[in-house]
Amino acid sequence: MSATLIAALAALNLFSFGLMAYDKRCARQRRRRVPEKALFLAAACFGALGGVLGMQLCRHKTKHWYFQVFFPLLLIAQIALLIWRYAG
After folding, report:
1. Which residue numbers in the chain have pLDDT < 50?
2. pTM greater than 0.90
3. What is d(CA 54, CA 43) in angstroms, rounded to the nearest whole number?
4. HSE (CB half, 13 Å, CA atoms) of 44?
5. Which residues does 65 contact at the CB level (< 8 Å), separation at least 6?
6. Predicted pLDDT of residue 67
């Protein structure tokens, strides 16, 4: 894997984590929230690790079954795709 790809994946996951943290802060302050579609899109664009970490560390969206199920599934699929692409 190239350094550019690693940097891009890190940036995508950092963005996804930041989006989860920002949405949690907005929820606490009763401000306008980040749409759930945007959270899923950030996770689907190879940011699932950041989304899962954001859920756990910020304790955000943990009561929604679809976040608890699909974020980890996205993470597993993304890891499997990267292994398939770069392990051979």
Report:
1. none
2. yes
3. 11
4. 8
5. none
6. 95
For residue 16 the two structure tokens come to 């996804």
Domain carrying residue 16: 3-86
DSSP string over 12-77:
HHHHHHHHHHHHHHHHHTT-PPPPHHHHHHHHHTTTHHHHHHHHHHHT-STT-HHHHHHHHHHHHH
End-to-end CA distance of the chain: 11
Distances (CA, A) of 28 to 17, 23, 55: 17, 9, 15
Q: How many structural domains compose the chain?
A: 1
What is the token pair recorded at 33? Answer: 């929230």
Q: Are 65 and 57 in contact (CB under 8 A)?
A: no
The number of residues in the chain equals: 88
What is d(CA 20, CA 37) in angstroms, rounded to the nearest whole number? 12
